[in-house]
Structures are given as C-alpha cells and as structure tokens.
Amino acid sequence: MSLRAVSQATRRLLGSNYALNVSSGHPMCRRTVSTFFSRPNTALLSSGPASRRWATSVTPHSTASDPAEVEALRCLEQGTVKLEEGDVEGAKLLYQRSAEINRNASSLFNLGVTHYHLKEYDEAIEAWKESITLQPSSADAHTNLASAYIISPVSRPDLALHHLQIASSLSPEDPEIAFNLAAVLEATGRLEDALSQYQRSKEYGVERAAVHIRNVSAKILGQRLKAAEDAEKSDA
Q1: Is there a contact between 109 and 79 (Cβ–Cβ < 8 Å)?
Q2: Which helix (H) or strand (E) holds 174?
Q3: CA distance 136 to 229
Q4: pLDDT per residue as tens digits for the range 14-55
Q5: For 125-141, b where at least 16 C-beta lie within 10 A, e where not — what string?
Q6: How far apart, in whole angstroms, are the C-alpha atoms of residue 91 and residue 137?
Q7: Closest among 191, 199, 222, 184 to 35, alpha carbons compared
Q8: Mapping DSSP to helix (H, G, I), strand (E, B) and coil, where does residue 38 land?
Q9: What is the value of pTM for the model shown?
Q10: How many of the other CB atoms lie within 10 Å of CB of 163?
Q11: Which of 144, 160, 190, 198 has the fewest Cβ atoms nearer than 10 Å?
C-alpha cells in the first residue's frame, strides 16, 4: 500500500504547507502553492495488510495481529496526534519508537517530517531515503526529500531535481509536484523545461503558475533576443 493511499484523507500537517522560497532559501509556512516548495506531507496511518496473521509464543493458534506491530501502530498514531497539536519533539520520539519496533515506510516518512520541522535536515534526508527504499512508489516521499535537499545548508539542487522528476513520473497530474519541479528547473536555468512544468501546473489548477509562465516566457524571449544580437555582432 502506498503512503498516498494510507494518507488519502489529508496529506499535510494541520492543512498547511511548510515551504521553501527557492531564491532566498528561507523556510516559511504557506497555505497555498506559489513560488515556494510545499511540504512536508504527513502519512497518518501505518501501512501493512490488516489480514496478516501471526503465531505467538504462548499459544498454538495464530492471532489477528503481532503485538509488536500493534504497539508500533499505536506509537505512529499517537505521534500524529502530537504533530497535529504542534508538539513536534513529542511526535519525533513516538515516531522513533514506532520505527524501532517496526521499521516501515510510514514510520520513517513521518519521522522525516518531524526532523524537517525541527530543521534537522540531514536526519530528514536519511529518514526519507530509507522510507523510499522501502516504498519507492511514494511521490510524497520523493517530493519531501527534494525539499530537504534544497533547504539543507549544503543545497543539492541536482538531487532535488532528480527526486522531483521521479515524483512527477509517479504522480504526473499532481499540480504541486509540477510547480515545484518547474521552480527548480527555473532556478537551475532550464527555462524551456520550467515553462512546460509551469504550464502543466496551471492546467491542473495552480492559478498562480500563470505569473511564472509569463515571467519565464519573458526570460526565454530575452535570451533569444540576446542570442540574435550576439550573432549579428559576430557577423558584422
């Protein structure tokens, strides 16, 4: 089960997006998609098939669930309650406990969210990388990891771009992913590709992308005019 599936009801802490201004590098909280990286998203429930049965050491019969898995799920759910209440440190401890008991993609994903909120970017990166190893098809984990690579003290836009491209391939109609991908492409000078992604983002409902479409189009036109002018000078 994908993280997107288990967290279908809500993908964000308190309905808000933690964000990054690509040009300034400063984290800020935003409720709408704009020129900023949105995230981190939060998985609210543990993955794992409910029908799985376990044998215990005290009875020859199988039980409906492994006690350790039940405890891991309890910690995961309590951690999410703490996160919703704004107690990020408390949530981190519970997610760490959940991951110690049952190291799965959901516990590591949410642990990464708490590290990110606490500006522990190296730890967030490691948690999300491990979560992706266990659940490679999570577009949210790839997007969160990209955000961490951008905002970390040693920014890695190349790795951010790599993971956003994966996220886009996994969720091609997600407007936020398209917008974030466009922002990194623009910041790294790939204007034609950025324009295409801004256009996709607008097509999927991000109205503010229209401003960036105009801005990037103007940059592209400026580059073309300069190239033509330079060509004329070289021919003269």
Answers
A1: no
A2: none
A3: 47
A4: 223 333 333 333 332 222 122 334 446 554 333 333 223 333
A5: bbbbebbbebbebbbbb
A6: 25
A7: 184
A8: coil
A9: 0.75
A10: 25
A11: 190
